[in-house]
Every structure is written in structure tokens, then in C-alpha cells.
Amino acid sequence: MSGIVVVERSATLSHLLQRTLSAAQQSADRVLTHYHELDPLLEAFESGQQRYSVVVVGAPQRHGPEFEKALAGLMKGRAAQLAVLILSHEKTPFLSEWLAQRRNAMLLLWSNFGRIPAAVKQLQPPVPATPAQSSGNVAPAPARRGSHDHKFSPLKVLLVDDSQSVRYLYRQMLEENGFIVDTAASLQEGYTKGQTGAYDLAILDYYLPDGNGDELTRKLVEHLGARAMPIAIITGSYKDGIIKNCLEAGAVECMFKNEVMELTLARIKALARTIHVQKSVEAERQRLESILRSVGDGVYGVDNQGLITFVNPTAIRLLAQLSSQDLIGRNAHECFHFAAEDGERRSASEDTLARAYAEGTTIEGYETVFWTRAGLALPVECNVLPLTIQGRREGSVVVFRNISERKSAERLRWELLHDPVTGLANRRHLTQALSQEVERRRERGGYSALLFIDLDRFSTIVEACGQAAADRVLADVGQRLVQRLRQDDLLARLEDDHFALVLSNVQLENLFSIADSFRELVHETEYPLYGKKMALAASVGVAILSHDVPSTEYVLEHARIACREAKRRGRDQTQIYVASSDARIARELDAGWTVRLREALHEDRFVLYAQPIHAANPQAQGAESLYEILIRMSHRDGQLVSPSVFVPLAERVGMMPKIDMWVLSRALKHLAALPPESPVGFTINLSNATLQDHESLKLIEQLILGSGVRSSRIVFEVTETQEIDSLHSARRFIQALRKQGVRFALDDFGTGYSSLSHLKHLPVDFVKIEGSLVADLAESERDRSMIASMIGLVHGLKLKVIAEHVDSEANLSWLREVGADYLQGNYLGEAMRLDEIELTPRAA
Predict the structure, then answer these.
(1) pTM score
(2) What are the structural domains of the chain?
(3) For residue 289, what pLDDT is reported?
């Protein structure tokens, strides 16, 4: 039983955490997915029914009452004894305040998740010793006559008294009780013998023929060889001044000659026991020093302030110091563990070892780096033990060893299977994991998937920003994607800007949504381009692993094919590859979405958005105010689904004509509510399936006629990047509606090879220039030349131009100058819910 409890709401992060612990041969006894689940566990721990040692808590990006209540519970009762590791995306004031109040707790950022095993190991308490090991008692040896233990040689006593009878009496008493006694009759004789340091205890008469006992005491104490010898004064006087003088001179005891001999002997025995303890401590100190000199690990001690109190020769050698005096008395944190492996300095409050010194905590197997006198990083593994003397904490002892060779071997193994730029798995690792997943599907059935992710226009980043900046973008993408992984998933970087992701055990009906969510996650990565922040995009190809997949190469190739198809469709798309022979997979893939789309139509769970299209010259004769109608699908929980997710699936299952009719009917209701003379018109996307459907043509004519809306206020957009199965059918469809006054626009002009062919054969009224060409106008002379040529070509055909993705005043001005008729982009107005827009004429 490891004693580890994991609390993490995110399935992906929980999987990442468990996998990281497992790789370090650690495992969690309990894995919780909600913070409130910690309450019964802590109650069981309080009652003694369960035993745990470390609670690992993943902090949400926004702290809520449930999370804060969980941390409060870890401050109460026996739960306050549990070690706690907080994993967070950032260090917040709330967490800092909580950690300051909580002993045996630490914070680790998710960006350093590779350090989780070492942190858990550090926080876990040491394994309790067996009774035989933990007992510090030694069976008492048979006592000699006397007060001191026979394992030490008898104590040697110097007795100084000018009375021969007193010397004889006391000598006889002491020798009968196991002491060795030497005598002196005067101050000078006592000083001559006492300064040799050959005695363990001196007993001095106060009145001596050549001076007083306090004078002799002072001389012996001041002499180097007598400082460690306890001195007792024996006198027949009870005067306070005499006793005071003796104690101030350095005596530890005053005894009186007229006391009962047994009382005097008891006092001397008490002194003897103290001397034995001192001798025992000194012997142990010398033994430990001998051990410290001989061990192969570095050992040093610190006080509670982190100042070094001792250091062994091995530590001096490993740290390349000249001698122990270079370290003793200095702060250990400032001397050699002031920075992380990458050289970034850290304060004592951020340093695990420095906190352990101050708090007196135990650490085992903590891996870090020490910095040598020459400024080189030395990988070490540390154990920290509190140093307690007579129940009082006096500092800590640290044992460390050089693990450079082990780290080198681990680094080589890591480099063999990982990409150096992103830290993700490399092609070799992916191939191994994919092969295992293929075998798993053959044995267990079910489905898995391989996502091939190709970043769009990545070469532009390399050319404009340099390879170093491009590498940072790759690392950022990898870090974002890995946060969403589950336990058995694997993300790898293959080469250049290509990533591959193995999704284990997926439901086909959810596959497109899952895959597309990774594509949308890439959008969160931004990169600087020509002084602006640009959002990254990616094309995603998906291949399905089933029980009859022949090989890993088969899966990889199909994922690549799907990705190429996504790029051909206009980039920033997700495409699933389904072979013509995989009819069963196609049915399962489509079945769930067919039901969802039908329910959404039946329950009216589609939402219309609109983005304004501005007339470049609103004062020109015939200028109108257009809005592009956009569609979103709403789940029952209110969450919106992007059209990039459901439109491709609706096209696969033949639902797009019905969705197109739903959009048109709702758009006509909005137009019908406006004054008949209103210059507002809508542009509405029509799918390829609708263009080929004769029944849809009849229904569109009926809807427009029945709405009472002028047909010229409707502009249907057809996308040139789509495969229009029959240009002849599409042409007839468009011509039929144009006779009724409906207008058409050719969307995404310039993205594919068929632009001019479509422009030649399809009778359209507008041409929409693809937005990616407009975005780089200010910096790209080539794009400006291309767009100027396109506008000239389109005007030569008596058509009007709509420029998309206008994102700056510079682009706006230039497009006006070269003759663009209409302008669209977030700079001019973002898409909003149609029912929240005041539909009035707009000027650019």
C-alpha cells in the first residue's frame, strides 16, 4: 500500500498524474474525481479506519468553494498530519497563504509534472523502524560498586585539602566506591597536578595554606587543559559570600564538611553521572566523526536557520571546496543549492531543502542539483533528517550522493524515445505505442484512433520569425495538447510541424467531436507575426484502428491521407478516413450523429449568428448592408457546437439540405420583419448536397415566395473548395434561382485549384476572397499583388468583390484603394447572435 491519494477533476490530468507516478514505480491507492469525495476519506482517516500518507490535490484554474472546502478539511484534526502536494497551473495568492499555514505541504506547477514522483517521495514519511531498530536503549551492564558505568574506566578525582585526616577520610570513601583518587595539600600543588588535564573531577577545600579554593578554581578553569574538568568546593563554612565566590569562579558544586558523609557521597555520585554522560556524548561524537570521514556519501548538518554546522570530507570533495572552513557557518541554500538545474535562481521560500531545514521535515530520495565551487551543476539525491537533541530540534542532517552516471543513463534512454524540442514522444516511441494499440484492438475489439496533426502555414512562421521562435510554438502546441490526454493516450511529434496522437478505446459516434476539439485547442496558441499576435491553426486527419487493421504503417498512411484531404478542403479542418470497404465503421460513425442532428432540428436547437459585411463606399449608388448568416448547434445543456464539427458529419449522413432549409426559413423571418425598402440583405451558405438536390430548389423557391421578402435580399454562398459533384447541376440550380432575383457568391476564392473553373462555369454575382490572403496584406507584397490581380479579374467579369478577414486599418484602407466592393472581418464587427443585432445599414 503506497498511502497515496489523488484528487483531480480533469480526467486528462488525472491520467497524466497516474502515468507519471506509475513510471516512477509509484501508484495511487485512491483516485478521486471530485473534491467532495475527500470528506468521507478524511473521516475514515480520523477514525483510524484508513491509513494514508500523502494527498495529491490538483487545483482548478479557478478556485471554487468545493476546492477551498477540501483544503480547509486538510487543516483539521488528524488530517493536518497528512503530507499534501498541490498541483496547479500557476501559483496563486490563495495557495501561497494556505501553504504558509500548513506544515508538510508543497506546491508544484503542472509545467514541472516530471518532478511529481520525487515530490511525493520527499513528502512521504520514512518507513517506521522495527522495535529493535527504534529502541535506543541498551541493556544495563552489571554495575560496579560505585555510581559510574563499568564500560568507562573509573573516574580519576583530584582531592585538594591541607588536612591529612580529611584527605585520608575522603580518599578511603571514594576509592571504596570505585573512584581513583589523587591528593594535593596546597593551592600550588593542586594547580600543578590539575593543569595536566589528567583528572575527571576536582574536589577543593576552600581554605588552603597558600590561598583560597575559589582562586584555585579560577586558575584551573582559565587553563586550557582544565576547562573540561568539573570542580566542586568543600568547606566548613556556610557563608553566602564564600559559596557565591566559588560558583562565580567556575565551581559546579559546593559541599560542606560537617554534612553526613552519605550526602556528600551522593553529591559526588551525581557529578560522576554527569561526567559519564559527557564522556558518552564525546565518545559518540568522535565515533560519528569517524563514520562521517569514512562514508562515501556527502554529509552535512545545518541548524534551524540553515547555517552549516559540520560537513564530512566526501561532501567537501563532491562540492569542490577547499576545506570544511569554506562552508561551516555559511547558509547552505546560498552556498550550493540556490538554483534549479536550468540555472534559474530560487529564493529560500521556493527551495524544498531550505524549507525542510526551517520546518524540520523529513525528505527521502529528493533529486535536485548542487552547485560546486567552480559553478558546475552536480545532480544529487538527498535525504534530510531532523536533528533532535533531548527532545529539542537542533537542525537537520543531510546525506547526498552524486547521481550523474544514473542521470546520464536515464537521459540517454529519454533521448532515444523523445523529441528534444517539445519533450514529447518521438516517431520511434509512437511506432511502439501504435503497434501495441493495434495488438490491443485485435485482442479486445473496439476502436481506437490515430490523429495526424499538421500545423497550417507553419513555414510562414519559420521564414518570418526564425527557427528558434518556431520551436517555441511547437513546444507550446505540445504542452497544450498533452493536457487533454487520458491514461492510455500518447502524443508524439513526428517531424517538422507534424504531430501524431493515439486515442485509445474511443466511441465512434464521439470521435469527430474529440478529434476536432484538439484542432480547436491548437487555436489557443499564438505567435508573433509582423508585430501582431496571430492564432495558430491546424489540419487534422483521423484514421480508425479496429480488430482487422493490418499494420501500423496502414494506420499512419490513412491518417496522412485524411490530413491532406482536410488541407485540400481549405485547411483548419478535421477529416476522418473511412475506406470504401469499411461500411460497418462508416455506419457506426454516422449513426450517432444522424440521431443528434435530427433531434436538434426537431427541438429547434440550432442558433443563428450574423457578421456584418460593410460596403466599402456606403455613399455609392446601390450600396447595401449585408450580413453573413452563421449557424451553431446547441446541446441540451446549452453548450454550442461549432459548424466545423457538425457540418462535415451532416454532409456525410445527408442532413445538410434539411439544415440549409432550417437556416433559410429562420433568416427569411428576420428579413420579413424589416421594412420592405430596407437595404439589409443576408448571405447564406449552401452545401454541395443542396446544390445537387432538385427538391431543395423547389422548397427554396416556395420559402422565398411565401415570406414576402424581395428575393434580391438573399445571397447564397457556394464554397469553391468543395467538390461540386456536377458543375452542370449546380449551374442549373443557380440559374433557376437567379431568375427569381436571388444572388450568389463564390466563397473562399483563391484557396484551391478549381477557382477559375468555378468562376467560369457558375453564374455568380459576388466573389469572396479567402481570408488567409487578406490577413498578411501589410507585410506580403506577393499577397497584395495576388489580391489586386483577383479584384481586377473579378471586376473585368462585372462581378463584385467581398474581402474577408479584414483585421486592421491598414488593410481596410488598402482594400478600398484597390477597389474591393465589400469588407468583412472582426476589425469591422464580430459575429453576434442574430436575434441580438439591430439590423441597420452599416458603413466601413
Answers:
(1) 0.46
(2) 4-125 (3.40.50.2300), 156-283 (3.40.50.2300), 298-408 (3.30.450.20), 422-577 (3.30.70.270), 605-836 (3.20.20.450)
(3) 67
